[in-house]
TrEMBL record:
It is a multi-pass membrane protein. Keywords: Amino-acid transport, Cell membrane, Membrane, Transmembrane, Transmembrane helix, Transport. One of its GO terms (molecular function) is transmembrane transporter activity. Belongs to the binding-protein-dependent transport system permease family. LivHM subfamily. This is ABC-type transporter, integral membrane subunit. One of its GO terms (cellular component) is plasma membrane. It is found in: Cell membrane. The chain crosses the membrane at residues 6-26, 59-80, 92-112, 142-160, 191-215, 221-247, 276-296. Its main location: membrane. GO terms for biological process: amino acid transport.
Amino acid sequence: MAVVEGAITYANLMVLLSLGLTLTYITTGVPNFAQGSFAVVGAYFALMLFRLAGIHPYYAIPLAFIIGGIVGIVTYACILKPLIKKNASVEMLMIATLAWDLILFGVVGAFAETLGSITKKTETQFIFTNLDFDVFGLSGRLVISSLLIVLTLLGLYMLLYKTKFGIALRASMENPSLAEAMGVNVENTRLFSWFLSGALAGMAGAVLPFMQVIVPATGGFIIVSIFAASIVGGLQHIAGALIGGYIVGISESLVTYGLSSIFGTGVLVYSKVVSLVMMIFTLLFAPGGITGTKLWEKLTKLWD
């Protein structure tokens, strides 16, 4: 039961992270390699609040949401927007996010060292599992992460289908040139998508230490699974992030657990291989992901 709970919790976090990655890819066409580090910023922010103010990491989630959103805005406004204005290619934008990822890695590392000098503890690596609690026999991390998924999906539905800004956001996703011609401020929708992307990552980051040890380089490891989730589900559709997040998150956890029971715990180190294999097979046989297949097209027509 604990393995299944852990798999679902990890998948919930993958959904939050891949939603952000897919959202910014649709609106700006940029594959963001710093998405994992956005989550690490949220994790260390939750650690700081716990160490210095005694705030439980679960209570820090709303503030991690805001901090992550600010990081997302800085990423777009200070790095990507100036490059897009200079007609930078997708490759240049991608390299820029890689460079930003390394900068965030350095900033988080320096922050951890500074926090450690204040608390007199080693803060470069930490975990929150000892702070978790049960809710009606279920782990707190499962309940909280599932609640975050429900609130996020409900919020996205209300935003995209029940508000004028959401309609403008959807229009800029589907056809930015036409949306701009009809008076939609595409720049505002892009800025908001980066805020939301960073915010979702920051929120996931506050829960991630309940799953695994966090170090400044954690973003570089989890970005593999985030990209795999978005690509398996389909980078051109928000629903793809939801589907891919659960497929990759649950598969990575359960397959790795199954292999470790056969070959030993040393297999756990190579858990990302599962995500990489799924991503390669998707690119080979269904480059558009699940939401890019004809079956998905038929299903959506039936739904409509």
